[in-house]
Amino acid sequence: MSLKRLLQISLLVVSLFLSSLPMSARVISVPRQPPPRTFDQPSDEKFVFGKVDQDLLSEIKLLDERFEKEGAVYHEPGLDAYLKRVGTLVVADQKLENVEWKFRALRDPVPNAFAMPNGSIFINTGLLALLEDENQLAAVLAHEVTHVSHRHTYLQNRSLRKKVLTVNILNTIANWNPIAGGAGLAISLIANVSPLLLALSMLGYSRDQEKEADLEGLKAATAAGFAPEGMPNSFKAMQRDIEGEQLNTFYSDHPKLQDRINYTGSSIAAGAKKLSEDEAKTAKTDYLALMEMVDRHDVDLAINEARFRSAVFASQKLVDLHPDSSENVFYLAESYRTLGPRNAVLTDRQLTSGAKKSAAKTRSKRTLEEQDAELLATPAGQEAWKANSAKSESLFIRALELDRFNARAHRGLGMLYEKLNRKEDAASEYAKYLELAPGAIDNERIRRRISVLRESNK
Amino acid sequence: MKISFRFVFVILCCVFVNYDVAKVEAQYLHPKVVEKKVTIRSAVILPAKVEIVKESAKGQEMMVAESADISSSVMEAVGESLQKKKITVAPNPFEASAMDESRKYTLADIQTRYDGLLPKMLKKSDDVKKARFTLGDEVMLLNVHKDADVLVFIRGQGRMFTKGKTAFSLVNILSFDFPFAQITVGIVDAQSGEVLAFTKPMSASKVLKDKKALSKMIEKSLKKVPAAAQ
């Protein structure tokens, strides 16, 4: 290959890389180190909506509507009003083009929150159940508000589109690469690693935006009168790896939680408002009381999605808050019943990276019934089932002592006895349930269970 | 010589895609269905979730409205195919406007249960024949028509290519990057929650926009499901 040809190819590759850099005056890149500014300044004064952004916005609006239609959003008047109040305080008086602020809870037991560029902020019930006070909630909402006000989704979308185009062009060059030898190899190599470079660059970009959202969110929450320690404390709450699913991946789209605790902690001004011990305690109790209904709903969701340890965690909080509430005791009993042969809290050994990866693999391969059967075949699993079923039974009985009309406690006992092969007891508890709740949604289901139990007893 | 071989290969691949040779129809039946211990006479189809994305040379874009339209078309096609087998399809009891919040939540929870099981069924579809998969009797919480034998879950995904992306995929034919559509249909016992039948037809994504072709694909994919009159 001639030197001239090599030079031409090199120029082509370099020009393709350059083509991925921002060209339009409308494109604004997020600075790696955002300059200090106060949050009430309009953060998007230079942002001009292009066609790509408008298209994305219309799709997002439709998606937002779909969440409502499909029952993904949790509506409870008290919670709706509470989220609106805290969210509005954090937003202050920001008015942005194409943004209508809405703060809602998503019916999802996974601890997470996210923002849509149209101003819809969603916080999962799983995260609401994990947070400990209003300051932490304000910090989470402020973080998400920053994503919207700094137009992070649009910027990321613009950046991704340019990078994907570059990768596609590089791939084409590599596939039709007519050059042999070292130069040809180099071109193929660049093309082959370009998807990985794209992924890494997008993750890095995302991490920068997350850091910006953390730091700007901290300022916003503080400016709105919330205790700044809410931000690092919310990360501490998220650090609880209840389900053993926080894997240390090589590269993530969020900074590591410990790093986030460190840099937000060190950003808190020395003279900033700090809660006294009593204030912190009151803030915690007030928040838990407000979240009681949400937490109960989240326990149901966690059980439905086989996040049994999270269910135990949330329902234990409910019982700690109101130990004499028959409903709360019922939820704890139900959580222990469904926990089955698992231990309620993961051991240090189960929290090692290898063990978590292995558990994730098992979850992806085995059905719930198979996982239960495998665990029950081990002495540890049998022991856990024995302890959990005994605890569950005593809690169901306690729930009935607190309120003898708690129909669901009878149903729970029925299910527990059925699993323990105490068929007559199970049928009797189910019958009590139907007597107390004749119009229950699962009336047919329980009737069928009774008839199956009676059939098998004949 | 090298270029001419590639040219021929490109032409062959175009023919391959255009004639939908890639259509794959896999069907798996629960032993109870095979042994005729269960007869499916009536069905309730749950709201389908078919997600399609537009793929251009610059990446993917959501198609939320189109996905909703295609979901309805697929639901319709599945309903027609079942009716051809003399299986009665109950009127949709899950119209979003007619449901209160608690009914929406119940439906969403059952759909989530199915979504949790789906990856396992896709990975080891053959295990449907071993009666390995069930949603549990929680499905009865939906309180659908009392005489419904089965619930039908429909999922799908598809990629629509823009002209630019089509050009790239043809030029890079060896990357085997084609616009495809995969639909999965899970037929679940309305009382026990057992997965009685599972199919996962796959085709070129243009089938999603052609109602006739879509019906044909679904019909073929449900071919093994026994007719109610049998």
Model description:
The complex is a heterodimer of chains A (458) and B (230). Chain A has helices at 3-19, 51-69, 77-91, 125-130, 134-149, 152-175, 181-223, 230-238, 257-267, 277-290, 292-304, 308-321, 326-339, 353-365, 368-376, 379-402, 407-419, 423-436, 443-457, and strands at residues 73-74, 102-106, 113-115, 120-124. Chain A has 458 residues and is mainly alpha-helical. A 4-stranded mixed sheet of chain A has the order 1-2-4-3. Chain A is globular. Mean pLDDT of chain A is 87; it is low at 11-42. Chain B is α/β, with parallel strands linked by helices and 230 residues long. In chain B, strand 7 and strand 8 (195-199) form a beta hairpin. The longest helix of chain B has 23 residues, at 101-123. Chain B is globular and about 60 Å long. The N and C termini of chain B lie far apart (59 Å). In chain B, 38% of the residues are buried. The chains are: A mainly alpha (458), B alpha/beta (230). At the A-B interface, helix 2, helix 6, helix 11 and helix 19 of A face strand 4, helix 3 and helix 4 of B.
How far is it from the N-terminal to the C-terminal residue of chain B, by CA? 59 Å
**Strand-residue proportion of chain A:** under 5%
Shape of chain A: globular
Which bin fits the share of residues in helices of chain B? Answer: 25-40%
How large a portion of the residues of chain B is in β-strands, by DSSP E? 15-25%
**Main β-sheet description of chain B:** 9 strands, mixed
Shape of chain B: globular
Query: What does the average pLDDT of chain B come to?
Result: 87
Rg result of chain B: 19 Å
The beta-strand count of chain A equals 4
Using DSSP, what is the number of strands of chain B? 9
Structural class of chain B: alpha/beta
Q: Give the helix tally of chain B.
A: 6
Distance between the termini of chain A: 88 Å
Query: Which strand order spans the largest sheet of chain A, edge to edge or round the barrel?
Result: 1-2-4-3
Q: What's the rounded overall pLDDT mean of chain A?
A: 87
Q: Helical residue percent of chain A? A: 55-70%
> Which regions of chain B have little confidence, pLDDT < 50, spanning 5+ residues?
18-22
* Topology order of chain B in helix (H) and strand (E) letters: HEHEEEHEHEHEEEH
Biggest chain contact:
A-B, 39 and 42 residues
As a whole number of angstroms, the C-alpha radius of gyration of chain A is 27 Å
